[in-house]
Structures are given as C-alpha cells and as structure tokens.
Amino acid sequence: MKKITKGNNYDNQPTFINKSQFVFTSQAESGYTDIIMYNLVNGKFTNMTRTSDISEYSPDITSCGQYISAVTVEKDSTQRLWLYPINLGEPELLYDDIKPVGYYGWHGETAALFQLGTPNRLVYPYSREDIFEVAQNPGRCIKSRPGTDEIVYLDKNTNIISDGKEVFELKGYNVNSRQSEKIGTALGNAEDFCWLDKNNLIMARDNSIYLKNISKGTDWEEIAFINMPGYQNISRIALSPDNKNLVIAMEPAN
Q: Is residue 225 classed as helix, strand or coil in its secondary structure?
C-alpha cells in the first residue's frame, strides 16, 4: 500500500486511464481544481488541464484514448462536459446544450449524464434532438457494465433501511431497448462502485471494501480492510483495467 498525495486539499475522484496511469481531481491553493495524471511506474504527476480560473472534476478516458473528459465549472459557473487532449492541446466542449452536468459515465462513445436539477436526472444523448431521460434521482456513480449494453446506476427513489443503513437498488439501463431493470442492491450507506467483470463489482464503506456477484444474487462480502494511519472513510475507489491495482480516496481522520 502506497500513499500518493498528502491530502491537504481536495484530492479525489480517481479513474484509471490504462493499467499504469490514473487521473484524479486535485485542488490548488487558489481553490480551483485541475485534473492530474499519476504514473504508477515512475511516480510522475502531470497536470492535464492547466487552468487557473476554472475547475475540472470527475475525470475519465474516452473510448478512443485521445482525451481526458471532465465536468468543467466554467467562468460563469456553467457546468458542462469537456474533452482535454492527452497531448495537452486545446480542450473541446461536448454536449454544449446539456447543463448543468454533475457527473457522467461513458458507454462506448456516448456519455450518460447526471443533469443537476429538481429533481436530478440521468439522461442519455442518442443525438442532439433525442436526449432520453433514463431516470430521476440517480446516484452519482454511472458505469458501463462490461460485456453488455447496460449502463448501471443507483436508483435513489427506491431506498430501504437495513441494519440501520440506507440501501438503494442498482439499475441497469439497456441503451438498445431503452429499458431499465433492477439488477441487485447496492452496499448500504455507499454509493460508488467498480466492475471487476460482467457480474462482480466492489463498493466501499468506512475503511472496508466489499464484493458482490450480481448474477448469483449473493450478499456483500467484506474482502479488505484499509489501515492508513491518519485517514478514514473511503470516499472513492478506482480499479485498473487489468484488476491488479486499486486506488482509493480517504478522508483525513479528525
């Protein structure tokens, strides 16, 4: 286990872009955030957005591998999805008419978007004229399910209380049939998840990581406990494409 950042400011939202590099949101002393890339092999940090008066959040890699995508808070506070070239070229705006964007998740070349509002909405842009509302009150984590045509999200309309913990349903949206169906229940008091493969996913709560097999309908099983002195409560998790490296974000202990 290796500590990557000191955590004095906001360092969070990690996402792997290949098996040895991941990107994350990092807050500067100015209060604005940039997208930073970290190389596990040489320990090098690279600022991928290099902006001094706007903030970027929720980085990911596009299917072509040429861009880092991010939710950008623009100078007028508009939040939209932007693409930042890996070669550090000029950024490009995507889905200019969908705003404000809070989170998103890629399915191939299309991003399902968490659109902020009352209520929040999950939308899937089939085209500029065909922006389909998938759900209302979704969770912030939106992930394509490996080997399927599904985008998976938490349905926050369907919470139950189990052992004193709030539990939400996991829903799979089929981009071809335009139908959502329940595929399981999320870990109580947790929201972010990562797929290991088509059927197995992990979530975290407090200092522990849990595993569940969706196809078997098993309960959540604790598979790891993270002991990092001075830190507690895992807030985000990211898994490398080869399933060999796991990055977690934790909060400073009081």
A: strand
Which neighbouring-strand residues pair with 201? 195, 212
Whether this prediction's pTM lies above 0.90 is answered by yes
179 three-state secondary structure: strand
Name the one residue in this structure whose structure tokens are 């949101």: 25
- Looking up tokens 């969908």 gives 98
CA dihedral 154, 33, 229, 60 (to 10 degrees): 40
82 - beta bridge partners? 70, 93
Q: What is the pLDDT of residue 36?
A: 97
Element (H, E) at 100: none
What's the confidence (pLDDT) of residue 7? 67
Is the CB of residue 68 less than 8 Å from the CB of residue 45? no
Burial (CB count within 10 angstroms: exposed 0-12, middle 13-18, buried 19+), residue 216: exposed
138 secondary structure, DSSP code:
B
Q: Return d(Cα 204, Cα 236) in angstroms, integer.
A: 8
- Find the angle CA(149)-CA(21)-CA(151) to the nearest 5 degrees: 15
Residue spans of the chain under pLDDT 50: none
Give the separation between CA 183 and CA 82, rounded to whole angstroms.
31
